[in-house]
Write a structure and sequence with these properties.
This protein has about 325 residues and is α/β, with parallel strands linked by helices. It has one domain (about 10-310): TIM Barrel, CATH 3.20.20.70. Helix content is about 40%, strand content about 15%. An eight-stranded parallel beta barrel has the order 1-2-3-4-5-6-7-8, surrounded by seven helices. Strand 2, helix 3 (about 65-70) and strand 3 (about 80-85) form a beta-alpha-beta unit. The longest helix has 15 residues, at about 120-135. The protein binds coenzyme A and zinc ion. The site of coenzyme A (COA) has 20 residues, from helix 4 and helix 5.
């Protein structure tokens, strides 16, 4: 049972990064910029706008420099860049990212598949990144990917995740994200892990990143919310997925999450009609249907004309 509706749930929009990184077709830089500019007017306080990884690893986002340079930054919106190493951090700083999101997997195997380095190698790289931003205003967030399960190793021990969180905090990370990279989490597991992590990290600095791979995305949001989490990643249309995780599919869908919150009286500050308009344009941009459901069904306020035969009954 959700017992406290009186809170604000903060949504970080990740479609420009997690969403587009797995798309097989090339999305023009101007279209990425236009998407981010429109998302910037929808009420988000945080948008993950691109990633500074190897262009060979993720060709779809190889233009992130140009994207960051081309967007119209709205006051109050933090534009986040995903980075895997020092080179990525230097590129992101040059492109004036407001915050770096450093990513490493709890699973050694997925880290090797995704970043071609061990978890120990990632930690060393993150130490260099921390040094490189010292004295700047750039924020640091660190993600534990595959925190709830790995497509190669299976279940991930919660103590291992907590150990990584502690390591991140010791390195000086401000924000922490727990990511369910391939949608393996269940609500009970989420509630338990979130409660334990919140003993170390305040809710204002903890983000949950769920994928809806097995249909449990919004259930996991509610479980995390009930456990005290207040910040969530989500992606317009339910786009998204890690190209280096077999079976990966979309993030939880932003407009479906906003609809859930609107219906339950949880404040997000996001304008749902604007999101729906943006989401309904994605199939034309990407050449396929999207998993988001509210964009297809409309909000519950959308009513249909009564069939004529009913009037005659
Ligand atoms: N941005 C751009 N280029 C980078 C880079 C970065 N952040 N980091 C390394 N490179 C370049 C190197 O300069 C080198 O270029 P060269 O071949 O022209 O000399 C090349 O990539 C190989 O460098 P190396 O350090 O050996 O990298 P690698 O091949 O071991 O790959 C990563 C390591 C981390 C760069 C790569 O695996 C990666 O970018 N992964 C990201 C995957 C991802 O984004 N997943 C989804 C999000 S979680
Ligand atoms: Zn993801």
């Amino acid at each position: 049972m959700i017992s406290d509706f009186s809170q604000t749930l903060v949504i970080q929009e990740v479609s420009p990064r997690d969403g587009l990184q797995i798309e097989p077709i090339w999305v023009e830089t101007v279209d990425k910029i236009a998407l981010i500019d429109e998302l910037s007017l929808a009420g988000f306080s945080r948008i993950e706008a691109g990633s500074f990884v190897s262009p060979k690893a993720v060709p779809a986002l190889r233009d992130s420099e140009h994207v960051f340079q081309g967007i119209t930054r709205q006051p109050g919106v933090v534009y986040v860049a995903l980075v895997p190493n020092l080179k990525g951090a230097q590129r992101a700083l040059a492109a004036r990212a407001d915050e770096l999101n450093l990513v490493m997997s709890a699973s050694q195997t997925h880290n090797l598949a995704n970043l071609r380095m061990s978890c120990e190698g990632s930690f060393l790289a993150f130490g260099e990144v921390v040094e490189s931003v010292r004295g700047t205003a750039v924020g640091l967030n660190a993600t534990v990917a595959t925190a709830f399960g790995c497509p190669f190793e299976g279940k991930i021990d919660a103590d291992r995740v907590l150990g990584i969180v502690d390591g991140y905090l010791e390195l000086g990370m401000h924000g922490i994200t727990l990511a369910d990279t391939t949608g393996m989490a269940n609500p009970l597991q989420v509630e338990r892990l979130v409660r334990r992590v919140l003993q170390r990290v305040p809710a204002a600095r903890l983000t949950l990143h769920f994928h809806n791979t097995r249909g449990l995305g919004l259930c996991n949001v509610l479980a995390a919310f009930e456990a005290g989490a207040r910040r969530f990643d989500a992606s317009l249309g339910g786009l998204g997925g890690c190209p280096f995780a077999p079976g990966a599919s979309g993030n939880i869908c932003t407009e479906d999450l906003v609809n859930l919150c609107d219906e339950m009286g949880i404040h997000t500050g996001i304008e749902l009609p604007l999101l729906l308009r943006l989401s309904r344009r994605l199939p034309a941009l990407l050449g396929h249907e999207l998993p988001g459901q509210v964009a297809k069904a409309g909000t519950p306020q959308h009513l249909y004309p009564v069939p004529q035969y009913v009037a005659g009954l």
